[in-house]
Design a protein that fits this description.
Elements (H helix, E strand, L loop, with lengths): L3 H6 L9 H4 L2 H20 L3 H15 L5 H16 L1
Helix pairs in contact: 3-4, 3-5
């Protein structure tokens, strides 16, 4: 389990895409958009540690995707969540 001190050390970069997905422009754009949306949400969040924990959980879940359709939906859903 991550402690609060460990959470402060984690810096989020765009999710690492596999070779197949790197060639997908839509996914690449969503990857950058998610990173920007997360940064914006983090700057506004009252509980930054909670947001970071949620992002870690999302990254772990998104890694289960086996294809670009799944990843696209995962990115779109997370961007929508962070935008609210």
């Amino acid at each position: 389990m991550l402690s609060k001190s460990n959470l402060k050390e984690i810096k989020f970069k765009p999710v690492s895409l596999g070779k197949k997905e790197k060639g997908d422009r839509k996914l690449s754009k969503l990857d950058v958009q998610l990173s920007q949306t997360y940064s914006s949400a983090r700057s506004k969040a009252a509980d930054k540690d909670k947001l970071k924990s949620e992002q870690i959980a999302w990254v772990k879940t998104s890694r289960a995707c086996q294809d670009t359709a799944c990843l696209t939906k995962a990115f779109q859903d997370r961007i929508k969540q962070l935008s609210n």
